[in-house]
Amino acid sequence: MTGAYALHALPDAELTAFEHHLASCEPCAQEAAELSATAARLGLAVTVTPPAGMREQVLRRVGSVRQEPPGGASTGRTRHAAVRARLLSRWALAACLAVAAALGGTTFWQHQRAEDALRQAHRAQRGTEAITAVLTSPDARTRTAALRGGASGTVVVSRKRDQAVFLVSGMARPAAGKVYQLWFDDGGTMRAAGLMDPDRTDQAVLLHGAVDGASGVGVTVEPAGGSKAPTSAPLALLGFPA
Q1: What are phi and psi of 219, to 5 degrees?
Q2: What is the DSSP string of 94-130?
Q3: Which residues contact 47 (CB under 8 A, 6 or more apart)?
Q4: Can you give the pTM of this predicted structure?
Q5: Where does 54-198 have alpha helices with state H?
Q6: For 82-97, how does the pLDDT look when each residue is reduced to its tens digit (9 = 90+)?
Q7: Quick one: which H or E segment has residue 175?
Q8: Contact of 238 with 143, CB cutoff 8 Å
Q9: CB under 8 Å to 241, separation ≥6 — which residues?
């Protein structure tokens, strides 16, 4: 069942039973973690780069695209309905103009929302490309370990790129107001390496900063927004592969 588990294809009843089994079976936990990491690497390998000029096209259309007016030939009763529709359209237009005057800046706000969405998409794309670069690096080395609650974690390190990626599968969501924080283990001193998404149980995270001789990665529970130094005992501590 490890393959189906890695692809999130198990029915609820089987998922519960399998996760219970994972808690006490290290070989299955290791295999499930390795398959999950492989699935993540395959998914990232087929990401598609948006076409050139897409950003400019979206921004240009935000201010120019509008609803098409009613059209088509009509006679008799349908002509009367068309006239009424045009009159209603004029009243609707007048109402919209009144609202726009009362809420000045709506178009600018929509434009800003579009800009923000595009910036987020660009950041996400850059993050995905950076993760893919580490996972597909020729010198990438992997280590997997079972985590608490039946979760599994995998760290992938590229010494050539001086970067590392942490992949986790089946991680329970943190309590409200809390977040999982990653740390480089610099000979017993923990160096902040980024935050995990509290709303996702399966994710791949590029550790912030260079590996720079660190011996491993740790995970702690911290207040939302993260901490400068760990405030709780590590939930997991994975040594980097040689």
Answers
A1: -130, 130
A2: HHHHHHHHHTTTHHHHHHHHHHHHHHHHHHHHHHHHH
A3: 125, 128, 129, 132
A4: 0.53
A5: 54-62, 76-102, 106-135
A6: 555 555 555 555 555 5
A7: none
A8: yes
A9: 141, 142, 143, 155, 157
